[in-house]
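Before a computer can learn anything about folding, someone has to put a protein's shape into writing. The outcome of that step, for a single protein, is printed below:
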Amino acid sequence: MARRSPLPPYLSGASFSVADHAFHGASRNRLVAADMQRPFTAVRSVGLDLADVAERCRAYEPLLRPGEAFSHLTAAELFGVPTPSRSHALHLLAPPGATRARGRGVVGHEASVGAPIVLHRDLPVVAPAHVWCQLASALALDDLIAVGDAIVTGRRRGVVRAPALASLRDLRSAVDAWGSRRGARALASALPRVRVGAESRRETHTRLVLVDAGLPEPIPNPPIRLANGEVRHPDLAYVQWRIAFEYLGDRHRDDRSRWQGDIRRRREFERSGWRVIDVTADDLGPARLEFLASVRGLLATIGRS
């Protein structure tokens, strides 16, 4: 068996064009060896985690042309925005007048007008508010609203919340600039329903299910001071009636420590005079009517005004 020639140390964690022999210095046979990654046509990489979106984007960098930026679902994933599905193919936006990107593993888009671009994770990415407009024609309305919620809500770590990706004003400005392009009607419907505070896609869906059924709109993640003086943030709450909604996904059921934490959290709320309504995926789908009836019943019981 032929012995592979060692690669230069600087190639570890790098991607490069096959044609850039001055950089990689590898022979044609070496470029097709099993330890070489071939993420895109005419590109090789070494030691990248191609399951990670940022690493795939870095693998594509040798093919990036001036003015191009990662966009649509790829940009949403880079920003950590929740969407119902992920795209392994990279979405790229070409500047006005340039041809869209083509090739294996790439979805190219042509810009009719210039899009704002930011540097995020050392990569050129379409700005978050403009990404929201790009996704309008690809997402259902409730998911479009969930993406909007995520963009205007900074991630919370304990009592500290990081800056949001964009503000509601930024979203409004982006929608105005988007004009009558594809997805404009969906944006017009979604924008008034975007709220600051939701920390997951399902929290947004729960809020929308309640409001669409004619029930009062709950507040996402309000700070609640418990009887012991500590502050907790229920997923959603009717603060005036001391009702908290807690969404329980499959991870809550399968992770023992998370399940135990859910129990302790519920008891803390109840000791402080709060009623807790657990919400599951079924409550937002096939069991929606029963879920809504239980909420209406509870509101009737406490005699809300």
Q: What stands out?
A: Residues 179 and 185 are 10 Å apart (CA to CA). The chain has two domains: 64-196, 198-305. The two ends are 82 Å apart (CA to CA). The longest helix spans residues 256-271.
